[in-house]
Design brief:
heterodimer, A: about 450 residues, alpha/beta, Rossmann fold, 2 domains, 8-stranded mixed beta sheet, 18 helices, about 10% strand, elongated, B: about 325 residues, about 55% helix, ArsA/GET3_ATPase-like (chain B), EC 3.6.3.16 (chain B), hydrolase (chain B), ATP hydrolysis activity (chain B)
């Protein structure tokens, strides 16, 4: 196993370290980011820290089990956790429109705030067009951090179209707010009482003309009123965005890239790792979710398949004999016509479900196979023996499938570690079902900490 | 079969793969399809094992029977400049706007404009005709944003049309909506037989229907083969371990006695069967949820060797077999 050479990510020291104040979970969609964030938060809380988890879009049942299914944009204390170590778990689900509205309300006085909130352009912007979620997640993180009420903030990131939109958000906003565009947009609105014409040179009026042509006069006016009304708040936006960005770079922050051992997810993960390095963001490691294992790894897929085929071939032999006997003596009370049963061996190709033959014959009309099995009379010894062989063959096929999955996962993982040997990894063994309660999160937390 | 095929699905369900397989399936027998990517992830190029796609319609595959698949990665910024030039002869103004940061604003920050540009470009390809008045593409398949965002993404033009009540953007948005809400469009959702993707699919369908967007089919991806049926799973719970060990041994897998190789396989194999049984039950429940949606259901197998170009053709064949094209 090449993974032995790879550094392992120790989750517990990271969570226990009082210096760790923010953990950001990022990764592509569908890899278990939200679950990982919640499990880390729970684990840290049960190990004695006062934690708040900021989730973006949790599964309904998980949100319900944490008591955060009502969107009120404030952290709620999660019940049913072990607080004996002195920790607490709070959780909240991000409501981006509410977050945006709150910023407006906090930074503009009554009339102006209402003017903004009622502006149609603002309403669309805040209702969640591309990008808003990312800005608001960062904004909320900044708010939570500045309240300084928690030892540790665990953040889940939005399922962005491009991996690190949330990192770009502050910069984008900044460059927009500093840009000439704002001045162009604001020029006509400001003209009113001021000697605006002096500032509004010919080039700019041409630009607003072009924008008006493109957007339609009324939309341009909406945008202009919006921008003018937001004018006083822009400075604040910019300052906070910059502060949040610096907060993310600071030593108290740890980024965890979450992935599943699949090609696309790990490719995204590699991209995340590179982007974080380029932005000087502190990466703690990779969480590899849903990794499969096997207690019988010494039996290869090929051998398991070969053995399964051998058992199935034996069964075919046996059933042919049974069928022939049945044809003569009428022992087998099968509804099949002799012609059908003669055909069936050929139709059972390699990929045919090996269970179907036995399942078809396991019908009540055939006496009582179940009691035959328990009392062990050998009157119809072939029947349980055949079932046992098909079961064994099925178990072997199941195992072969598992081993193929294992080697596929291993290959994709190796590709990642070859590219980024410096990144510590922790593996989380796959659970057969979904996680939607505290006990499930705790189990994930144990697996995260165990690293395999 | 509608000419604009929109493929969405929760992250991780393989919607790009399904969109590509669908484009291949629809191109079979001399048809021409355009596969459109809107999220700038270059997933199509990776699937077809080619270099990154530029903002340009480019042939990337030949389908069985002589059909062709073209691909296009829509870049919103270039699409906007395109529009300015095409419709308003504003190439020069476009450059000036770019310098101002207006293009960046329009494609990243301005509400919905980005999505308008993306859907607009796809609809333009749907309507485009050649000199002889025939459609350039028989089908356009869009690898769309995930289920959670799809309704908003497709419906954005309605919203923009309301926001810009007059002017070219208003007209453009309305023209796009006419295509998207017509029978010319079908929105398919890709899912896995797992609780969260199925839940999201059900929610997504509800949202699409509420917005009067045409819902197409549900495609269950990565369906694992049924290895053990219920009767055998039951038997696995009661089977004597020694009998199992003996059978394994008879297949040449070592000694059946305590500590023998075959005997030591029994526990892990039964454990895997138990996990399988749990998953089997979960999958059956999720299947039932999907069946209740009242939409045509298709299933694509999990490819044991992982996804590659050959696998893509295999999935396309499977889709044709199931009568999707």
């Amino acid at each position: 196993m090449t993974l032995d050479a790879v550094r392992t990510l120790d989750v517990d020291p990271l969570l226990d370290d009082p210096e760790t104040r923010i953990v950001v979970c990022c990764g592509s969609g569908g890899v278990g980011k939200t679950t990982t964030a919640a499990a880390l938060g729970l684990r840290a809380a049960e190990r004695g820290r006062k934690v708040v988890v900021l989730t973006i879009d949790p599964a309904r049942r998980l949100a319900q089990s944490m008591g955060i299914d009502s969107l009120d944009n404030t952290p709620r204390r999660v019940k049913g956790i072990d607080e004996s170590a002195g920790g607490e778990l709070h959780a909240m689900m991000l409501d981006m429109k509410r977050t945006f509205d709150e910023i407006v309300e906090a930074h503009a006085n009554g009339d102006r705030a209402r003017q903004i909130l009622e502006n149609p352009f603002y309403q669309s912007l805040s209702a969640g067009f591309a990008g808003t979620q990312e800005y608001m997640a960062m904004e909320k993180l900044g708010q939570l951090r500045s309240r300084d009420q928690w030892d540790l903030i665990v953040v889940d990131t939005p399922p962005s179209r491009s991996a690190l939109d949330f990192l770009d958000a502050p910069k984008r906003l900044g460059s927009f707010l500093d840009g000439k565009l704002i001045r162009v947009l604001m020029a006509p609105a400001k003209m009113g009482g001021r000697a605006g014409m002096k500032f509004l040179n010919v080039g700019m009026s041409m630009m607003t003309g072009a924008l008006g042509k493109l957007l339609g006069g009324q939309l341009l006016q909406d945008v202009q009123t919006f921008v003018a009304a937001m004018d006083t708040m822009f400075g604040g936006f910019r300052t906070r965005a910059d502060a949040t960005y610096r907060l993310l770079q600071a030593p108290g922050t740890a980024f965890l890239v979450v992935a599943a051992p699949e090609r696309d997810a790990l490719r995204e993960a590699a991209y995340f790792v590179e982007r974080l390095a380029a932005e000087d963001m502190p990466l703690a490691g990779l969480v590899l979710n849903r990794v499969h294992g096997s207690g019988a790894a010494r039996l290869s897929a090929e051998r398991a398949l070969a053995a399964a085929e051998m058992l199935e071939a034996e069964n075919l032999e046996d059933s042919r004999i049974v069928d022939q006997e049945g044809g003569k003596a009428g022992v087998r009370n099968s509804p099949e016509t002799p012609a059908d049963s003669a055909k069936s061996p050929e139709s059972q190709g390699g990929s045919h479900n090996p269970g179907s033959a036995a399942a078809g014959s396991d019908t009540p009309e055939e006496g009582s196979p179940a009691s035959d099995r328990t009392d062990g009379t050998d009157q119809s010894a072939e029947q349980p023996a055949e079932q046992l062989t098909t079961l064994t063959a099925g178990l072997l096929r199941l195992h072969a499938e598992r081993m193929q999955l294992l080697s596929r996962e291993q290959r994709t993982r190796d590709r990642f570690t070859a590219l980024h040997p410096e990144v510590p990894v922790t593996e989380v063994a796959a659970l057969p079902g979904d996680v939607h309660d505290i006990a499930g999160l705790r189990a994930i937390g144990d697996r995260l900490a165990a690293g395999d | 079969m509608s000419r604009l095929q929109v493929v969405s699905g929760k992250g991780g369900t393989g919607k790009t793969t399904v969109a590509a397989a669908l484009a291949l399936a629809l191109a079979t027998e001399g048809k021409r399809t355009l596969l459109v990517e809107v999220e700038g992830r270059q997933g199509i190029a990776q699937l077809f094992e080619t270099e990154a796609l530029p903002y340009e319609e480019r042939k990337i595959a030949v389908a069985p029977g002589g059909g062709e698949v073209y691909a296009l990665a829509i870049d919103p910024e270039l699409a906007l400049l395109d529009y300015l030039q095409m419709f308003y002869k504003m190439g020069g103004a476009g450059r000036a706007l770019k310098k101002l940061g207006a293009i960046d604003f329009a494609t990243t920050i301005a509400p919905g404009l980005r999505d308008v540009l993306l859907t607009g470009k796809a609809c333009e390809a749907v309507r485009r005709k050649d000199k002889r008045g025939r459609f350039v593409y028989d089908y356009v398949v869009m690898d769309a944003p995930p289920t959670g965002r799809i309704t908003r993404f497709l419906n954005v033009n309605d919203e923009v049309a309301g926001l810009a009540k007059i002017g070219p953007i208003h007209n453009q948005a309305q023209a796009v909506m006419r295509v998207i809400k017509s029978p010319e469009t079908e929105v398919h959702l890709v899912t896995l037989l797992e609780e969260m993707p199925v839940q999201e699919t059900a929610d997504g369908i509800g949202e699409l229907r509420a917005a009067k967007l045409p819902v197409g089919r549900v495609i269950v991806n990565m369906v694992r083969p049924a290895v053990l049926d219920e009767a055998h799973l039951e038997l696995a719970q009661s089977v004597p371990r020694t009998a199992l060990a003996k059978t394994l041994s008879s297949a040449g897998l070592g000694g059946a006695r305590r500590g023998g190789l075959a005997e030591r396989l029994v526990d892990p194999l039964l454990e895997q069967a138990e996990e399988y049984a749990e998953r089997y039950a979960l999958e059956r429940d999720q299947h039932a949820v999907l069946a209740e949606l009242g939409l045509p259901l298709h299933e694509l197998p999990l490819l044991a060797e992982g996804m590659d170009l050959a696998g893509l053709y295999q999935l396309a064949t499977e889709l044709r077999k199931q009568g999707i094209s």
